[in-house]
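Consider the following input, taken from an annotated entry for Protein kinase domain-containing protein (Didymodactylos carnosus).
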Amino acid sequence: SVIYQALETANSTLNSIVPVRYAAPEILTNDSGESYSQKSDMYSMGVLMWEAYSKGLALPWSEVSTDAEVIRKVINGVRLSRPSPCNEQNWTIILHAMSQLPQDRPNFIDLRHSLTKTQYSTGELKPLLTRRNRNNSEAVSFNNSAI
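Applying the prediction step yields:
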């Protein structure tokens, strides 16, 4: 299987080149270009996070032999299986990024916040700077913004 596949649909005379194994369900069902959005990019980001936890040793859906079968699975809501090094908190974030419906996916700011919060709670990251905010509670500064 290749990363990019010519995708034909009934309502198009042109083929679109789509990275099928990274594409959101709405991309695989509509080649008009109207479905490409920050939310479809977020789905692809979820697949890239899956690939990072898989250490890049396999393509997404490597156990599936054809792109047509990948398309069927993704459209029907099947998701990649959790890589063994991925903890439950990060897997929840990845699944949220790969939600079936675009409106259920986070935006990139929310994704950053969720990942940062999870990394601090699991001890993967240590605060760069803490300060007291107006409510006299501690706020963590990360990249010049409070978390």
